[in-house]
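so ive been stuck on this for like two days lol. basically i have the seq below and the ligand is pyridoxal-5'-phosphate, smiles is in there too. i just want the complex predicted, nothing fancy, no docking runs or whatever. if the output looks off dont worry ill sanity check it later, just need somthing to start from for the group meeting slides
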Amino acid sequence: MEKKNIDWANLGFGYIHTDYRFVSNFKDGAWDEGVLTEDANVVISECAGVLQYAQTIFEGMKAYTTADGRIVTFRPDLNGERMEQSARRLEMPVFPKDKFVEAVRKTIRANEAYVPPYGSGATLYVRPYMFGSSPVIGVKPADQYQFRVFTTPVGPYFKGGVKPLTIRVSDFDRAAPNGTGHIKAGLNYAMSLHAIVDAHNQGFDENMYLDAGTRTKVEETGGANFLFVTRDGKVVTPKSGSILPSITRRSLMQVAKEYLGLETEEREVYAEELPEFAECGLCGTAAVISPVGKVVDHGREICFASGMTEMGPVTKKLYETLTGIQMGTIKAPEGWVVEV
Ligand SMILES: *Cc1c(COP(=O)(O)O)cnc(C)c1O
């Protein structure tokens, strides 16, 4: 397959039109077979449920080329499972995870010419999503839905090297207790836009959100989970019902335990304890781990020992091991790396 003429190493993170996308419609209580189409436009009623009451959910994953030239994706079954859970919470029909994985593989295969070569640092970002497509004016779930998968090539995350982030403890809340923080829904992002624009205007890279109930416990940022490393090398991640269960974070915790022999703990983490940690990182599909150098809590600066120029040693080991597993240079646990 001939690759597209793209300057992979200098790609950013933006939408680039690719050749094919997958579309399946839900009508009269059932999903149709679904097709690949070259039509990138969506035509829906002006009164569609998604437009009026934000009934929409999504997933985010990557396809890439391994060291031995296979095109693969990482743990797509977990994205499928998570999308099932998101659908249930927003009263949307479940798109079964097996069909989800098949649709993702089909879409990647159809856009193989856009999968960046091994070593370029770039990847093909894959965006499955679903929305209420039929008219809704009285508040209720839509009757009809569309599930789609598109792809877009994205550049290396750490262009020009790793640069630890400075984040602030936010006065805005991300998710209510017993709300929708644990599902991947556009609505969680719509209400975070003001907080992130404000953070950027104040010179911060990200917001650290605390639990909305007591405002004492660390939850996550707008789009990534936290990992902390204690001074004696234990890997800690916050536990809360309103955190989005990151697949990267869950994988890194398993890597810490099973590959690196580190102690791991998922527990409530209080903002008060932040100065006790040696390293801090943000985990998500996009970067795997972005190191955090500094947290600013209302003027009080908490600087991690790992500093502002590089990843901390444990964070780095975690990053290298998981990316090695993904790229096929380190043996993966069964089912983690799926050929498309
Ligand atoms: C998608 C997302 C993450 C990261 O999840 P991954 O499965 O690791 O990509 C973390 N937090 C939020 C709020 C997210 O939407």
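Residues 313-327 form the longest helix (15 residues). Helices lie at 49-53, 76-89, 97-110, 186-190, 193-201, 247-258, 313-327.
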